[in-house]
Specification:
Layout lengths: L1 H9 L1 H20 L9 H6 L9 H8 L3 H4 L8 H16 L1 H7 L2 H33 L1 H4 L9 H28 L4 H11 L2 H9 L4 H23 L1 E8 L2 E3 L2 E3 L2 E8 L6 H19 L3 H9 L5 H22 L2 H10 L2 E2 L7 H36 L7 H24 L8
Antiparallel strand pairs: 1-4, 1-5, 2-3
Helix pairs in contact: 2-10, 2-11, 6-7, 6-8, 6-14, 7-8, 8-10, 10-11, 11-19, 13-18, 13-19, 14-15, 14-16, 16-18, 17-18, 18-19
Length: 423
């Protein structure tokens, strides 16, 4: 594997892409430590404990890479863009014009991407206003005001800085996708979570529970092995191609296979579920009333309500995203168009029904596994009373993004006849 990594760095094109990706991630981490103008840094530092642990502020702070606890220019993170993507994908099913637009190829996808950007700016602006009022409401606990001058001009300045930071992250993510090694948005979330890894290791090492200290590494290894096993598991459907006459040439028939992964949605359902479940507690934190506090407590990440809700959303989004990315009817039509068929299954509608039935059986255990891994740390915290910095959602995202990045490097290396990561 070390020789493979060295081969990757020996290719000039890949080396430039890796360097560009690293530079963009360094800019992201640097901006995560630059506070917005008009805030009291002493008061912000006094509120660090409010953004730790497994509460909703700690979860939002995790996805922002610690920027939220510092009220930095990247405090919003990339979550508004992800939320916008969720909304647009849901609207494609409900709105016929958007569904038609999504089927127009690259032009339609470009239009939908543009709509996603516009919605991201609106959500970031609204969320920035909420964060300003949230930090202002927390000043009573620290004894000092976080916002130096709580008036319209200073609030507008902070909101504009936070919104601009979110838009800049969206731009950086698209640059990584275009000029880097791909998966720009996912890599930004990956960098945010990995930046909290030293804190998690320190918390594990300083724990007084010796049994927990010994068992935790083995548990993490088992979870990592299980995630890799399920993420890479696939059902190979044999496909037979008949001989075809194209012009004056006759193409030889052959046999190949159609790979159906156990979890075709990857880590997207986990990110979607975390974004949706973070919305009600955020509203509860902003609304300083009895019912607002009740909502925040009800959907707290360390409670069973959050675990059940997140598990349901993970299962639902797994089926939804799989249906969006893999259409059995289109696959059956493509096979029929190019003279392919599944042995024992008639072409056309029977092939689509066969693929849909197989995909439904594969997706269900994959979705349950994702939900179980996401819920495991919460159950472990409740049993051991230990503060685990990295939860199941974080582990799923980190491993999933790492696997996708390795596959992209694998593809680029194989294009240049180098031995890749995956055998």
């Amino acid at each position: 594997m070390l020789s493979t990594i060295l081969n990757a760095f020996q290719v000039a094109d890949i080396r430039k892409k890796l360097a560009f990706t690293a530079a963009m991630l360094l800019i992201y981490r640097f901006g995560s430590h630059i506070p917005v103008p008009g805030v009291n840094l002493t008061a912000v530092n006094a509120l660090q404990k409010s953004f730790g642990g497994s509460n909703i502020l700690g979860l939002l702070n995790l996805f922002s890479g610690g920027s939220l606890s510092r009220l930095a220019i990247f405090a919003l993170g990339i979550m508004p863009y992800i939320t916008s993507s969720i909304i647009l994908q849901l609207l494609q099913v409900a709105v016929p014009s958007l569904e038609k637009l999504s089927k127009e190829g690259e032009v339609g996808q470009a239009r939908i991407t543009q709509y996603t950007r516009y919605l991201t700016v609106g959500l970031a602006f609204a969320q920035s206003i909420g964060y300003v009022f949230l930090f202002h409401s927390l000043q009573a606990k620290s004894g000092e005001s976080v916002v130096t001058h709580f008036d319209a001009p200073h609030i507008f300045l902070i909101v504009i800085c936070l919104t601009t930071g979110c838009v800049m992250l969206m731009w950086i993510g698209e640059l990584i996708t275009q000029r880097g090694i791909g998966n720009g948005i996912s890599l930004l979330i990956f960098a945010s979570i990995v930046s909290r890894l030293p804190t998690g290791i320190q918390a594990w090492w300083n724990t007084n529970d010796q049994v927990f200290k010994v068992m935790m590494p083995f548990l993490v290894l088992a979870i990592v092995a299980g995630i890799v096993f399920v993420q890479e598991g696939q059902r190979r459907i044999p496909v037979q191609y008949a001989k075809r006459v194209i012009g004056r040439r006759m193409s030889e028939g052959g046999q190949t296979y159609l790979p159906l992964r156990v979890n075709m949605a990857g880590v997207i359902p986990v990110i979607f579920a975390a974004s949706i479940m973070a919305f009600p507690p955020t509203v509860g934190q902003l609304v300083k009333t009895h019912w607002g506090q009740s909502i925040s407590d009800f959907f707290s990440p360390d409670g069973w309500h959050y675990v059940v809700g997140e598990s349901i959303f993970i299962v639902v989004f797994t089926y939804f995203y799989t249906a969006v990315t893999f259409n059995p009817v289109d696959q059956a039509d493509n096979l029929k168009k190019y003279g392919g068929f599944i042995p024992g299954v008639r072409p056309g509608r029977p092939t689509a029904e066969f693929l849909d039935r197989i995909l439904a059986r594969l997706t269900f255990p994959g979705a349950l596994f994702l939900a179980a891994v996401a819920a495991l740390p919460t159950i472990l915290i409740a049993r051991t009373h230990q503060n685990i910095q990295l939860g199941g959602t974080s582990i799923l995202i980190v491993i999933g993004v790492a696997l996708e990045t390795m596959k992209q490097l694998e593809a680029q290396l194989m294009m240049r006849s180098y031995e890749g990561f995956l055998k």
